[in-house]
Amino acid sequence: MTKHSTVPKAELHCHIEGAAPPSLVMRLAERYRIDVSPVIDRNGRYIWSDFTEFLRAYDLASSVFRTPADYGLLAETYFRMLAAEGAIYGEVFISPDHAQSAGLSYRSYVEGLAAGIERAKIDTGIEARMIAVGVRHFGAKSVERVVQEVIANPHPLVTGFGLAGDEREGHPANFARAFRMAGEAGLGLTAHAGELAGPESVLAAIEFLRVKRIGHGVRAIEDQDLVRRLADEEIVLEVCPGSNVALGIYPVLRFHPINLLRRAGVRVTLNSDDPPFFNTTLGKEYTSLAKTFGWKVKDQLALTRTAIDAAFCDPATRKRLIVRLDSAVVP
Ligand code: ADE
Ligand code: ZN
To answer: Which DSSP letter does residue 234 get?
Structure first.
């Protein structure tokens, strides 16, 4: 097992279905007699070659989670692993559309996940929240349905709303109404932008969706005016470098713009996105980025602090997390 640094870590961007270990997916697939061989190879690795195929693999792997207990096991497994890497806080994107395709109501999906989160928290102390996402390529109506479900079934651990899926489809203007409803209900807002599309996509997300956090956002680097605006408005980027390299957005970590963004004063955090699909973990992200860009412990602690500052949690939880971060002794 890889040894991880003792730097306290926090994550804002990880899709719970995308965090499913292939071994767990195969176990459930056998139980429910679902053929996952098109998307998991004989070495137990996910198979995909571009973003469209990745989404297809993701959808099939997700389809093996059928009951609240299955989702509970997934959440418990993920948060235990995250805590073992030194994380004190994690937010996961949850996708009511995926749960619905597997025959689960929104309420039982959330309750199953919450039970797993609680079990992991009792044993490890990790704090967690959920962000419900709409799938962009399913269209505005579908995304609005997700917001309505979230508002109609409030849960203390569901504190945010977001937009995932294929950024190349559907202008953010189509989702303005959904985000307005979510914002008025007091949910924290974030949207994927500037991953598969350029700076114009990031700008549109800020203007039409009024988000203070952006999923990825890294392609903002192609427009210096936008970089300045992100810095001035203190918009936080949920950066997922390993995911970006795996999907071919940048050829190698050395060419990833996170360090340029950071030096330009943009607030950045480190995240794993869909860890087993991209052969990464939050711990690996901290370690490999520190190595690539020569980041010291204080630079890594600053990433965690930014994540906690921008977390979709209540003020008392934020304060407790900051105390934990400040009291950590890192050699
Ligand atoms: N859903 C799961 N992972 C995603 C990603 N990296 N971008 C957009 N939607 C996603
Ligand atoms: Zn993502």
So the answer is: T
Fold of 3-20+65-326: TIM Barrel (3.20.20)
Alpha carbons 39 and 284: distance in angstroms, whole number: 24
Q: Of the ligands numbered here, which is closest to the C-alpha atom of 249?
A: 1
Shortest CA distance to 298 belongs to which of 2, 5, 4?
A: 5
Ligand closest to Cα of 190 equals 2
Record the pTM.
0.97
Both tokens of 307, joined, read 């994540």
| Residues whose beta carbon lies within 6 Å of some atom of ligand 1 | 15, 18, 58, 164-165, 192, 195, 243, 273-274
Cα 22 from Cα 34, distance rounded (Å): 14
What are the domain boundaries of the chain?
A: 3-20+65-326
The residues facing 43 across adjacent strands are none
Phi then psi for 192, rounded to 5 degrees? -70, 130
Contact 73, 80 (CB under 8 A): no
Q: How far is CA 174 from the centre of its chain?
A: 22
The DSSP element (H or E) to which 108 belongs, if any, is: helix 106-124
Single out the catalytic residue among 76, 85, 127, 195. Answer: 195
Q: Are the C-beta atoms of residues 235 and 264 closer than 8 Å to each other? A: no
Residue 15 confidence (pLDDT) above 60: yes
145-173 pLDDT per residue, tens: 999 999 999 999 999 999 999 999 999 99
